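Researcher: Please translate sequence to structure tokens.
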Amino acid sequence: MPGRSIAIVGAGLSGLVCARILQRNGTPVTVYETDATPDTRQQGGSLDIHDDTGQVALEEAGLYEEFRARTHVGGEDVRLLDKTGRVHVDRREPAGGSGRPEIDRTDLRRLLVESLRPGTIAWGRKVVGVRPATVGHELQFADGSVVHADLVVGADGAWSKIRPLLTPVQPAYTGITIVELRLTDAAAKHPEALEVTGRGSFFALSDNKYIGGHGGDTIAYGCGLRVPENWVADSGIDWHEPESARAGLLREYPGWAPSLTDLIRRCDDGAIWPRPIYALPIGLRWERVPGVTLAGDAAHVMSPFAGEGANIALIDGADLARELLGGSDAETAIARYENTMFRRAAEAAAGSQHGLDMMFVDGPPTEMITFFEGMPGTRRTEK
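Model: Translation complete:
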């Protein structure tokens, strides 16, 4: 798109990788981000980056080797438990990995941020609205300023300010709320917790609940609950007071093994974050609107229960950049990108919903045990 201005709204994974590839190929771009700095918000836990989506995007961005240098040894292990603490499945990372290395989301985002030229990201610029102009669109900011762009890419997450230009559809509550937790310096300070979780992914599932996440030097995990949408506000828990938050969560896990509930009792004070999970309808599409498109969660936010969201966001950004650089006019390029994105997002969202349905069930995690059986490296424990 030589000579045309490109504005990416949102410095998440999709927007950053798109900006990186465009900039690497000589196309100017500006990223507008609400956060004042890269470290304003907690970025979440560990991500498994898939060889057919996320890794492809990082290759195109010229960042693959730097990404691999930041991945976790043993990060592809998987451990599945029930509420008694019994380990049903213990899948070990095969030699050379299985094509889905793990990296902290914070480290991956930092890698992408630092790959861009200084000044590419306009930090602390909150977009509050967007309106069509004679050519392109005008972005309206919280400080009253206005910026024109020939192409606007909405990469601004689940509650995108750009999406209403394309569709009135908004995310709906999935029935699940996750309270995110952390244990830092686990090997030195919490070896008993690391013994339970291992250094890979772990899931303790029973009775429409889970405690799970990813082990390692920092154990990043969460408590997942099938609860009403307003549970966070109506629970009576003071989420700003760690002891109140811990006590409230422990009430939700009666009968669970102390080795699992100790993960709640001992979590870090400053990292208790309740998060209702929302998703857009599976298969959402919209009619082509000139000069604007969406990527990542803005286009297809889904539950995290298939490990697809970050990977789809990364490949969205790469696909969009590749199409824009391909020599076609912008509208043809965006239409091709959206057709690919719609199909892939529908498949990923369906997989995420299926993962949710397998994890949050009455009783023990029978279907999840069956799912992992037969996968390379899986060892089912003796009954």
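Researcher: Any highlights?
Model: The two ends are 61 Å apart (CA to CA).
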